[in-house]
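Just scan my protein:

. . .
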Amino acid sequence: MDSLGPLALTLAIVGSAMLALPFLDPKDDRARIALFAICIALTWRYVVWRFADTLPPLGLSAESLYAWAFAVIEASACLGWTFGFVNLARTKSRSAEASEHRSWLTTPPRVPRVDVLITTYNEEASILTRSLVGALDIEFPGVRVWVLDDGRRAWLAALCKEKGALYLARPDNAHAKAGNINHALGVLRDYPDPPEFIAIFDADFVAHRNFLWRTIPLFHDPSVGLVQTPQHFFNRDPIQSNLLVGNVWPDEQRFFFDHVMPSKDAWGAAFCCGTSSVIRVHALEDCHGFPTDSVTEDFLLTLRLDRAGWQTVYLNEPLSIGLAPEGMKEYITQRGRWCLGLMQIFRSASGPLSRGRLSLPLRFGLVDAFLYWSVSFLFKLVCLLAPIVYWFTGMTPGTAPAADVLSHFLPYYAAVMMTLYWATGGLVQPVLTDVSHVLTMPAALKATLTGLLQPRGHSFKVTAKGGNRGRVLVQWPLIARFGLLLGLTIGGMLYGSLADYTPERQEVGSTAIVVFWSVYNIVVLLLAMAVCVEFPRYRGEERVATGERVRVSAGNCSFTAPLTDISVTGARVQAPSPGREGDVVRLRLLGIGDIQARIIRDTEDGFAVEFVDADGQRDALIRKVYCSRYERPAARVHTGRVMRALVARALR
């Protein structure tokens, strides 16, 4: 081992991981606890070394203040990661519980009244039609569907009447979404048959048919006040679409909903995420309705429920599907709102250090969230700035021989990345994970300062949906920020290559490490800038793969072939085209029957069609595409495929 020098421990960790991880089950809490304990130990081994051996004496010089400030921010980030590792050390699935306690509803028959509430403000008709059709297709006795319209639109009232849903508007928009739901609760309370439970959906989310049969059984426990389910998306988010990695990289929220939330549930710290949740009305009344003193009323609702003695639990099953932010502006707006809401809660009487009843797991969860939003993005910024500072001034975050840096940083980094890769199926990878953080960084830093210094008086910013996406859109303000950092990094490297380095600086081996650091930052910044160039999206409706076979009839020709994918407006068939472009054929679709379609083009493995004269079958197509659980199951991410996709994007 001594002959391997500073790489000995790192190689031992990598070798052990390659031998052991394939045989360990990521769902086994014992394995998770052991591995994340190793990560925590190596993380703090690195932090102790940083403070003990790499920092100059604390003083008022620029070099000392800079090094100590960087180290304090870095240690704070490591503290946040430690909270995250502790959270991820356990995980929980409630699927078996939901199946087992379905009998709670059937023996003896006890089917509670459930009202589905769809909140809307300014969404367009195509989005609301999709959500309405899905909600009305929910299989549960006596369910009522309400559309809560803060836009007070006559056409939406007519659409609800046509589809068979109930429509409700209010005279003002006080307190945005939370106020909209609270107004509806007041109306429902006086209804002849008030609901025992309400299901909440945003206007762009479509429920699956079995949504209530899977969630309501979890209320067999009389202490459960809210059941949250994950958010899945039928479209690609800006990172997937603008980097052209949608086929090899899942949406950014998969790490949170597929891994973080099940772990929080295991600790008793799951929380409401708004849409796709079910709430016991009695529990909501105990909290006097949805809170209105934060722009993230959903998270705050969980804290109020906990104070009133109610649990929030999480069912990690794909029971709805919705619209991810389609552009960078919407992506940034959404994440800025999340950060601002957390800061408002942290400064409020519901914060982690507040008096009164609040469970310890939720207090720790609040600290974890605070460190994530306030420190991790600040640390990302200083990591982008540190090489620039070095090249232009010679100041470093610390001084140590390169061998010591490798022997302390690499073991911790390797252990953390390999454990997270194993636990999440490859969802945490160095480059793309950092790209998503860099994109969110400006909004998160601004929202952190705003929320901490002025927590009150902020309006709810709705995430825009729909609209025209048929042209290239460049987010110049973001590109300017990232371009400035990129230019300074490259300029600094050029300046540093001409600078007169002293022998002392050569001895500590800083230059080689900072060169690698700079190159990594350049790659991340270039990819972040690429995400800010939004490609046109000409497809009006998203397509989903089905795995079905379809009967195709064209004149006297009739055959069965695989259905490659389908949308509300068309489909692709894996077979030689039975005609020329413009010819009309007939497809027999499972669950719909015969539908006329026009051939629009040949594809690599078959032909594509658009449906014609299908207005009468549109609702059936919506149910087939969005309510039938056709979205792809979670798959393991392969690093090689991701890297090849990024190279292809760079060469485009």
The longest strand covers residues 557-566. The chain has 22 helices and 17 strands.
